Each structure stands twice: as C-alpha cells, then as structure tokens.
Amino acid sequence: MKTKILFMGAGAIGRGYLPWTLDETKHEFVYIDGNQAIVDRMNQHGGFTTYRVNGDEYQVKKVAVKAAYTPATFKLEEHKDAIACFFSVGPRNVIKAAQTLVGSSFPLIMCENEPDTVNDAKRVVGHDKVYFAVPDVITSNTAPANLLADDPLAITTENGVQFIEEGPTGLYGDMTFLPREELLRIQWTPKLYLHNTPHCITAYLGALMGNTYVHEAMQHPKAAQLVEGAMTEMLRALKLQWDIPHDFLEWYAEKELSRFRCQLLFDPVARVAREPLRKLELHGRLIGAAQMCLTLGVLPEFLLKGIVGALLFEDKHDPDHHIGMMRESMDTASFNRYVLGLRQGEPLDLMLREKMAAITAELRDFAKEKK
Amino acid sequence: MTTLDHSALIKSAVSAVLEASKLADAARATQVLNTKGNLRDIVTQTDLDISEMLSKSLGVTGLPVVSEEADVPGGMTPAQCWVIDPIDGTVNFAHGLPMFALSAGLLDHGQFELGVVCAPALDELYFTLNSERALLNGRPFSHTHRPREQALVAASFSAKGSAAQYELFEAVNESTRGCLRSGTAALNICWAAAGKLQAAYGFNAKLWDVAGALAVARAAGCEIAVRWEPNTLTLDYCVGSAEAVQHVRSLAQSKGLWN
Fold it and tell me: What number of other Cβ atoms are within 10 A of residue A265's Cβ?
C-alpha cells in the first residue's frame, strides 16, 4: 500500500523537481496550492508532466496526483495519515500556508531557501517535526511553448540532488539525509552564496537587458563577465571563511555557472529576480554576501553591481514593485539605512553611497545591449 | 472635490520627512526653547527648524500644511491638507530618549489617506504605499488582530490629563498585559499597526500627533475608532486589534470619556 505525501505548493520545486526524488511505487501525491487553475487541471487530468534535462534532451515523467486542493478546500482531518509534507511556497508565504496544517503531527520538510522558515513553521503548527531541506537544483516554473501545448502544467527541471535534515522517516526515493549542522555548513552555505547570489544577479542583469530567461542573460559577454566576477568574489570569501574543501567549492561554482547557461531549462528571469527586497535582506544573498566579503578583506566590486541591479529591478507584477518608488523618494544614505538596514558609515554603506550613481549608469547601459 | 495623486504625494512626503529627519539626527538631546503652558508641552529649536523645512517642502505640492508649530488659519482644518508634527515626543527627544518621531499625514475630507512616520533614533520608517498598504522600512505589513488577554496597550495623555484618564489608564493596565506611556502618540499607533502593541489610545489628542500614524494604521487593517471635536483639530482615538479597541472603548465609556 502506498503512503501519502503532501506537497504544500505546486510551483517550480513542488511540481517540477520533487516528484523526481520520490518513489511513486511507494508513495501517492496530494497537492495543496493557492492557484485554482493548477488545482483544477491536476484534478481533471489526474496529474501533470515534468521534464528533466538530460544532456541535450529531456527525460519525461508523468506524475500521478491523487488529489489537489486549494488551502480553502483542504481538510486536514482527511489527510492526517500523510507521512510528510514538503513545503515549497516561497519564504514569505510559509506562515500563512502552515496555518492550513495546524493540528497535524506529520513531519514538514521545508524546501524554502531560508533556514528561518523552519522556526516559522514550528511556531505555527505547534510541533517540532519541521526539517530544513536543500534541493540543489534549478527548476523553472514553466516550460517551452511546444511542451506547454501538450500540458499547460508542463515544467522543466535539472537533474539535481535533494538534501534533507535528518528526522523524517518512511520516505523512499533519491535523497540524502544529513545532520542539521552538516546540511547547513556543507550544502546550504555554498547554495546561498555560490548559487543564490550569482543566480539572482544573472536575473537582474537579464531584466535590465529585457531577457525572458536566465540563459539569455548569460549569452551576453558583459553580463556573463559580471556574474563570473561575483562568483569569484564569493568563492574567495568562502575559501577564507568556511571549513569546506576548496576543490568542492570550485566544483560547485563551475557547476552553477554551467547551470545558468543551460538552454533547455527556460528559467524565467521574472521568477529568479522576484521579490528583490527579500533578496536584499541584511543577512541574505546580496547584502549579506557583500558584508561577508568586506569582513574577510575581499572587495565586493561585482557584488556591489549585483546589489544595484536588484535595486533597479522593475516588474509591475512583482510584490516588491514599490522598490522603484522608494528609490526615487529616498537618497542613497536613507535607503541604505531604512530599507537595507545598514549602519550609517559602515563600509558597505559608504561604498554604495560613493558608487551608486556610476554603477547605475553602467547597468542602465546594459539595457542598450539587449540581444 | 479635487482628486489627489496619491502616488506622487506619498513620494513627496517620504522624501520631505527623511530630509527633515536629518535635522533631528544632528540635534539629539537638545535644549528646551520654551514651554507652552504645561511642563510636558515643550518646544525646541529643532521642532521649529523641522516645521519650517517640512512646511516648505510639502507646500510645494500645492496643498496647505497644518503644523503643530504654526497657527492654523481660522482655527479650522482645510478639507485637503498635509498635517505635520515636526517631533512627536519632544520631551523624549529633549531628554535624549529614542522614542520620538517626525510625522506627516494627508487628510482628505476627514479621511487619513497617506502617512509617513519616521523614528530616526530607532531606524524605523513607517509609510503608506499610496493609501492601500502599510510599510515598515519598505516591507509591507498588516495588523494581526489578537484577543484582549494578549493585548499590550499604550496610552497618550493630552497636555493636561484628566483624573478620568488616569483611572482609565489603571483599568486598562489591570485588564490587559499592561498599558504603556511612551510619550509619543505617533509611535504608539505605528507600533499598534505593526502588531508590536494591540491597541493605542488617546483623548484630546491634537490632529498633528496622529494624522500620519492613523493613515498607516488604516492601511495596515487596524480597527480604528475616532471621535472628532467640532474644531477638527482635536480628537479622541483608539486603534489596533478589534477586540482590544472595543475593550478600551468600553472602559472609557464607563469612565465617561467616550460617550
């Protein structure tokens, strides 16, 4: 008899990647997502298709869905037999989504790109069986037009690796369980700084150039040079900072750059660049990365350009679209202080104040380089 | 009625308040220039300087500016105007305490439409995104309504608090998690909006003390109870979680403060 797994979120990771990591002969899948159209389609067709990049072609998986619900229609009492729930709703949505599972006792596995979401979820659901996971993969939230024509829920992903904090049991598939400390140090730290940091910088440059997909940005020599420069800065800092083998870090960095260039992924710029204020959090992938570099004596010249790229991101559909309004109504010192949380006069504050205008002009020129 | 361009006006207000806040940064723990008939009602040179700067910069928008430190023409609030408080919490400011704020609010026919409240010593900047969303340091937030038993409340006393107000303070303090008196109505309201407090209230408050903050609270989804005096420059207010607001109002009614 198959055991039941819940997926909170049917976006890129939940729909595109996680089904590849779980043994469908041992588990049945139930999805919860706020998008009514996705839920309806899953219920009408009993599933969806995910495509995994394999060399120059795709592997295809037809994923069977036992049932799909919106948070409003999901009834926990009908699913208390689930053995786990994988979360991939976006860090800002975790608290709200977790309220759907108040009263549950099964483990929650947080594939949320933010370790703090574990504590957020624990507070909401009221138990401690909440675990962090690091899906080391890039997954699009869409697919090329020819695949979408066959299935509007089609989605493309890489062949990644799933690392989960030790704790959950009864899961069958392709995943590695690690003690929390090892997971954070060996897998999360490189992912934050060697994946998340340059990945979002690539997307911000792509946005400036009017690109739709991340790989298109990497086709532009100036953009590629800037992304590689940011990667080099992060690599230098991590080698100084962390007790992680240097050859592993170098392999990781190379792997990431080739991922960004992958032309089969169709990874949307809008997805990777979304919520720039979240990416500009004090201890996060941009400001936190630059701070780490400065602490270790690495001058974050390229990272600084990435930070400005995030400030210049404009997408009227983005929840952080007001970043443009704030940029226009605040001088750099005030923006650094109130929005970025920098202390007045600290090195990153001073660097941004000194270089903001010049970098902005340089990045605005990227718009003229649209391919 | 003139339709106002909220997106342009809030940009002007954020810009003006941040620029003026630099005067407060430069003049922490300043000398008292004068008292205004009560030991708690004081003014410093920084109040006057900020008032002048904000009046000029917001005046450029074409709307009249009502300020604590300037006479109100005819003693009545214009239908559409900026209402500014150069420093709400001047006593704190003069004593080197961090709980003070610069505040600007857009009042449109009795509605608190836009607001900016900046507490420079706390690095907190509250403002409304147009009139729809409340932001703290650029991040949207909304008020989470909590029950009375979980409520921490803050009170603001007018320059001359009545005996009934002190009785109410005691009653609120005893029937909730406590009642604070921070010395700044604007921050009390913003903290209530952000859910750090569950209610903030005051009687005979001056419009400039609360105009910006009440716009923030409204955009954050707070329960707001306001009772205006006929001069439209003075009001009673209670804002925050619905249950906590109702509780404070009931107690105030029992003391004859809110009929």
Answer: 22
**pLDDT of the residue at B74:** 67
Query: CB B138 to CB A331 under 8 A?
Result: no
* CA A197 centroid distance within chain: 10
Tell me how far CA of residue A192 lies from CA of A89, A234, A235, A264, A309, in angstroms: 18, 10, 12, 23, 18
* Tally: H helices and E strands in chain B: 7, 14
**Is the pLDDT at A217 greater than 60, yes or no?**
yes
Of B82, B114, B81, which Cα lies nearest the Cα of B11? B114
- Determine the length of chain A: 371
d(CA B210, CA B235): 9
Residue B1 CB coordination number (10 Å): 7
Q: Cβ contacts of residue A267 below 8 Å, gap of 6+? A: A138, A139, A140, A213, A214, A215
d(CA A305, CA B222): 40
**B24 contacts chain A (CB < 8 A):** no
Coil, helix or strand at residue B4 = coil
Q: Are A315 and A207 in contact (CB under 8 A)?
A: yes
3-state helix vs strand vs coil in chain B, percent to 5: 40, 30, 30
Q: How many helices (H) and strands (E) does chain A have?
A: 18, 11
Separation between Cα atoms, residue B212 and residue A345, nearest integer Å: 29
Within chain A, residue ranges assigned H as helices are: 18-21, 36-45, 94-98, 116-125, 145-150, 180-182, 189-190, 197-209, 214-218, 221-241, 246-261, 269-273, 276-279, 287-295, 301-311, 323-329, 332-334, 347-366
Q: Does B144 touch chain A (CB under 8 A)?
A: no
Instruction: Mark residue B57 as left, alpha or beta (left: phi above 0; alpha: psi -120 to 50; beta: remaining).
Output: alpha
Q: Which amino acid is at B29?
A: A
CB within 8 Å: A325 and B15: no
Distances (CA, A) of B107 to A74, A292, B9, B110, B113: 43, 45, 12, 6, 6
Domains of chain A and CATH, by start: 3-178 (3.40.50.720), 183-368 (1.10.1040.10)
Give dist(CA B67, CA A162) in Å, integer.
60
Tell me how far apart the alpha carbons of residues B176 and B248 are, in angstroms, rounded to a whole number.
Answer: 10
Residue among A281, A318, A322 with most chain B CBs within 10 A, to mutate = A322
Per-residue burial over A130-164, b = 16 or more CB atoms within 10 Å of its CB, e = otherwise: bbbbbbbbbbbbbbbeebeeebebbbbbbebebbb
Please report, for residues A8, A182, A299, A313, A333, the alpha-carbon distance to residue A50 in angstroms, rounded to integers and kept in the order given.
17, 30, 41, 30, 46
Q: What is the pTM of this model?
A: 0.89
The number of beta carbons lying within 10 Å of the beta carbon of residue A332 is: 18
> What is the spatial distance between Cα B116 and Cα B130, in angstroms, rounded to a whole number?
11
Q: What is the pLDDT of residues B228-255, one digit of tens each?
A: 988 788 999 999 999 999 999 999 999 9
- A289-347: per-residue pLDDT in tens? 999 999 999 999 999 999 999 999 999 999 999 999 999 999 999 999 999 999 999 99
Strand order in the sheet with B101-108: B65-67, B80-88, B101-108, B111-119, B124-129, B133-136, B139-141
Q: What is the DSSP string of A275-313?
A: -HHHHT-TTSTTHHHHHHHHHTT---HHHHHHHHHHHT-
Mutate to test the interface with B, among A326, A332, A335 (most CBs of B within 10 A): A326
Cα–Cα dist B221/A369, whole Å? 44
User: What is the interface pTM, i.e. ipTM, of the complex?
Assistant: 0.92
